[in-house]
Design a protein that fits this description.
The structure is a single chain. This protein is an alpha/beta fold. It has a domain of 271 residues. 55% of the residues lie in helices and 9% in strands. It has 21 helices and 10 strands. The strands form 2 sheets. It has a 7-stranded mixed β-sheet. A hairpin with a 3-residue loop joins strand 7 and strand 8. The radius of gyration is 24 Å and the shape is globular.
Length: 495
């Protein structure tokens, strides 16, 4: 039996379940939430055992927002669209890794719309999302996107039994029959080089990534060749198709036939003994009522681009107006105002929250980031007061909760008023990268700072993994440009 402490309930429906490695939010029952979190802890231990991370420092707890599936026959998932207004009904999860937050939004589903019965009663999606985070955090930018996605789906099908774990079975949603349809595009999956790649649809991409990973990992020789291929890509091989042909001994165009044949074979599974460990400690508490209306809208505000800022702002203002005295709703409104609304109003709300609780981490961090924005918009002679104000708030936030990657990164951004970065700024950026290695923007900002400090070696180490990611999109392009500039400027002169 799990050790569960349930906090006194309020009037909200959403629950927050916290264990050693995850925080899961959901409006499902406490019983369902408890089972999901327990499974996630088992998966986490298995992954750390397999990939040699058992002795690694405790990571940041990973937040997952677990939502219900759409009703039978529905053409959209209204709950998911609170986070992503364009989400199709078939979308299972979205993974976000930005300066504002690192988290997943996941549908807990039996996948009936896909014609597949989920053998683990809804956990495959959330297990896959956590596995994706594990690989992104522990091997940031060192694996092609198809491998990270395929590996995540590979582990999503883990069969957790009382005495053992069975890994490598067919995923519930991405079965081989579905994946094996129209395998001609698999060569494009290998060769994709950015965010504008042409693939029929996301489900096909995910299914074929999962099939490809299972095929490669099912045979020791193929698995060893994959390791060699990844080493070549990391060293800078640009023509991934040519590298594939050299390493695997045949062109990538042979893959469709190989995969079609593999899909007809029996699963190659691995059985591991289940570690004898105490049941995970899981604390469940009920969220404030405001979370019912605002929890997913808040997460939308933390993404790179909000679909419709005016519409989202109106929605948050209306919801907050229904609970004018609730701290959660007021804080949500404050974030919305400084992000897409009236910055002055947002800052006044945050000051009121700090008057009530001087150690409010979220309010301190939001005020610091708002003052940083004002500094960025000001001319040179008026920047200093805003930077000083931002630094004051963020130093208080750091004291309230040390080792928070967002606070550390923002605090480092208050120290940009000199040409040569200070040792303190460099130390803050180094710590932020170590705590959130999968956030590309932090790595790039840190690399530029180290380059300005004449530490090209550290800058190169930060940028190289991003530049070598064959599927890295805009971040990879930016990293390559900086590395190319470094190569030209730092290249020794010919005598």
């Amino acid at each position: 039996m799990d050790k569960v402490v349930v906090a006194p309930q309020s009037s909200g429906h959403w629950l927050r379940a916290e264990s050693e490695h995850v925080i899961v939010y959901s409006d499902e029952t406490a019983e369902i939430l408890r089972g999901v979190v327990a499974d996630l802890e088992v998966l986490d231990h298995a992954l750390r055992t397999i990939y040699g991370q058992l002795d690694a420092p405790a990571p940041r707890k990973y937040p997952i927002y677990l939502i219900r599936p759409a009703y039978p026959g529905a053409t959209e998932n209204e709950t998911f669209r609170r986070f992503n207004p364009q989400a199709p009904v078939t979308l299972i999860s979205m993974d976000i890794a930005e300066v504002e937050d690192v988290f997943s939004v996941v549908v807990r589903d039996d996948f009936k719309f896909g014609g597949v019965r989920d053998k683990t009663a809804g956990d495959d999606g959330v297990l896959g999302a956590y596995a994706y985070h594990f690989f992104s955090e522990n091997f940031p930018f060192r694996q092609p996107r198809w491998l990270t996605k395929g590996a995540a789906i590979y582990y999503s099908s883990i069969d957790i039994r009382a005495d053992r774990l069975v890994i490598g079975g067919m995923p519930a949603l991405f079965d081989d029959a579905k994946a094996a349809r129209d395998l001609r595009k698999i060569t494009d999956l290998i060769a994709e080089t950015g965010d504008d790649w042409d693939y029929p649809d996301r489900q096909r991409y995910d299914a074929q990534s999962a099939l490809l990973v299972r095929y490669l990992w099912a045979d020791p020789d193929r698995k060893a060749r994959l390791a060699t291929y990844l080493e070549r890509i990391e060293r800078g091989d640009r023509d991934v198709k040519a590298t594939w042909a050299e390493v695997f001994g045949e062109p990538v165009e042979k893959l469709p036939a190989r995969l079609a044949s593999y899909a007809e074979q029996a699963d190659v599974v691995t059985t591991l003994p289940r570690a004898s460990a105490p049941a995970p400690s899981i604390r469940i508490r009920r969220m404030p009522a405001g979370a019912d209306d605002l929890i997913l809208e808040l997460q939308q505000l933390k993404t790179v681009s909000v679909a419709s800022p005016p519409a989202l702002l109106r929605r948050i203002r209306r919801a907050a107006a229904r609970r004018p005295d609730e701290r959660y709703s007021r804080q949500a409104l404050a974030r919305a105002e400084i992000t897409v609304g009236d910055r002055d109003k947002g800052e006044r709300l945050l000051e009121q929250l700090l008057a009530e609780d001087g150690g409010n981490l979220e309010a301190l961090r939001l005020l610091g980031s708002s003052q940083l924005y004002r500094a960025a918009a000001a001319d040179r002679e008026h920047k200093s007061p805003f930077l000083a104000s931002a630094r004051s708030y963020l130093q208080r936030a750091d004291a309230a909760e040390p080792n928070d990657y967002q606070t550390l990164f923002l605090l480092a951004q208050t120290m940009v008023d000199s040409e040569v970065p200070s040792p303190e700024r460099l130390a803050l950026l180094r710590r932020a990268v170590s705590l959130a290695p999968e956030v590309a923007k932090i790595r790039i900002v840190a690399a530029v700072a180290f380059l300005k400090a004449d530490d090209a070696q550290t800058a190169f180490a930060l940028l190289k993994p991003i530049s070598a990611d064959p599927n890295g999109g805009a971040a990879t392009v930016q990293a390559k440009k900086i590395l190319d500039l470094m190569a030209r400027v730092l290249e020794p002169e010919t005598p």
